[in-house]
Each structure stands twice: as structure tokens, then as C-alpha cells.
Amino acid sequence: MxxxxxxxxxxxxxxxxxxxxxxxSGAPPPTVPAExxxxxxxxxxxxxxxxAALVAALGGHNLILTDSQAPVRPAEAPRFAAAPRAVYQxxxxxxxxxxxxVVYEFPDTASAAAAAAEExxxxxxxxxxxxxxxxxxxxxxxxxxxxxxxxWLPAASRDAAAxxxxxxxxxxxxxxxxxx
Length: 180
Known about the structure:
By secondary structure, the chain is α+β, with helices and mostly antiparallel strands. The chain has helices spanning 3-23, 34-37, 45-59, 78-82, 109-123, 126-129, 162-169; strands at residues 65-67, 85-90, 100-105, 137-143, 146-152, 174-175. β4 and β5 form a beta hairpin.
């Protein structure tokens, strides 16, 4: 073999070895810390006011709201992902792992409106759409300095009360409809 061919072969062998060593680092894959998945533990008076509004609106449809510690993380734009939040669940006996409502808290109404508009735009884009099954209905409602977020898939719903959640939420605050 020519010297130039040997040099190319040696370079390739070294690059392959370095690449393989980088892949076999033995380090475990990164994980998402639990605190970024679980809801915020401290509920503020502002979030409690929104929760009371949720209870009243849902109660008008004979639906019961409960607190939840489930690790719910819907498709979120950056402002939603960074905001403190509380997770609630509407009791759906025929669909016990559905009915989650997330309430995000922001410093003021302008920040809440900006975050809701960002989420609205995000869900209408490709990255936002691929995070939810086709046909998913998203409800975004600004209530003061909080934003209420709910998603459901009508085609997969097993509980006849599920449509009432959307109806109840659409009576709250200001809406940010998602273009389908």
C-alpha cells in the first residue's frame, strides 16, 4: 500500500475508535428530573381562585374536580414549560386516566395572555401537532394571571361526561382557539 493510502487508513481507524469510545461512555442516558414532570407542590391564592372557578364551571355540568399528583406534561411552548403549575383531574369513571386540567401561573395578566398566545401558536405548528394524536382538541383559557389548559381526544373518549369538560371550560375567562 502507498504511504498516502496508509495515512488515510490510519486516520479512519483512529476516527472510528474515538467515535466508538464516545458512544460507549458507560454513562446512563439523561433523565428528566421528577420536579419538571410533577405538578408544582405549592398552590398560590391566585391558582386557588382559578381552581374555585373550575369547580363552579364543572359543577354546572355535574363534573367533579380533584387535585392530582400525576406526572402530566402536555405539549407545551417554552413559557408554559417554565411556568409554575398545578394539575387537576375531572373524575371520569369510564376513563380514569383522562380529564387532566393544567393551570399555569404567570406574574400578571399580560404575561398570561402572552403565554396563552404562544401556546396557541405552538400547537398550530408542526412540532406542536406531532406531540398529540390527530383529532386532539385543545382548550386554552386565560383566567386573570393564570392559564387553564386541557386536551382531549373525542374519538378515543370512553366516558359520556367527557364533552362536558370542554363545554365547562369554554365558559371561563378568555379563549385562545387552536386552528385545526
